[in-house]
Amino acid sequence: MSYREAYLWGKPYKKLNDEQKETRDKLIKAFRSYKTDMADIENKEILLNNGTLSEVEKKQLEISIEKDKLRLMYLDNLIKPLIKKDKELIYYKYIQGLTHSQIVQYSSYYNKLSSIQARASRIIGILTLRIDPLIFKENYNE
Question: Alpha helix (H) ranges present in the chain?
Fold first, then answer.
């Protein structure tokens, strides 16, 4: 399904099947842990450059850093084709964790509370249809 088709035919949450709902929940969890993952990568790189680790520990840490970077890059690439107002909504709602009234205060696009929940549900539905569920295959921080 192309991005345009997914955008035009994006399903709201209640119309997704059970497998898609599970993928959607994992996607939201991934967005919500985005900032934490960025900080973890920085901390792991500091630990790696500290020089107190054995070779085996260094290798495991390098693999862990690479996996985290790839997952974040995948999420970045997933939202890249979205229009600016949708990117902003994903950032404020899921990554920053703002409430709907806070989004209205900070957003340059959204000025009504009623439009935010419907739009967020639609965007996540679209992204759920576009995501490769294998990104969550390796026991994603559960």
Answer: 3-8, 18-32, 34-50, 55-79, 84-90, 100-106, 113-130
- Nearest to 121, CA basis, from 29, 2, 14, 4: 14
Instruction: Tell me the two tokens of residue 13.
Output: 């949450």
Question: Would you state the structure tokens that stand for residue 16, as one six-digit string?
Answer: 């997704």
Considering only CA atoms, give the Rg of the chain.
17
Between 63 and 141, where is the model more confident? 63
- The answer to the question of residue 99 being in a domain is yes
Query: Are residues 93 and 124 in contact, defined by beta-carbon separation less than 8 angstroms?
Result: no
* Sign, CA torsion 125/131/136/137: positive
Residue 104: pLDDT band (50, 70, 90) is confident
Structural domains in the chain (count): 1
Residue 137 lies in a domain: no
Range of the domain at 50: 3-131
Q: What six digits make up the tokens of 130?
A: 């576009």
Determine what percent of the chain is predicted with pLDDT higher than 90: 12
Cα separation of 47 and 52, whole Å? 8
Q: Could you tell me the two tokens for 95? A: 């990554």
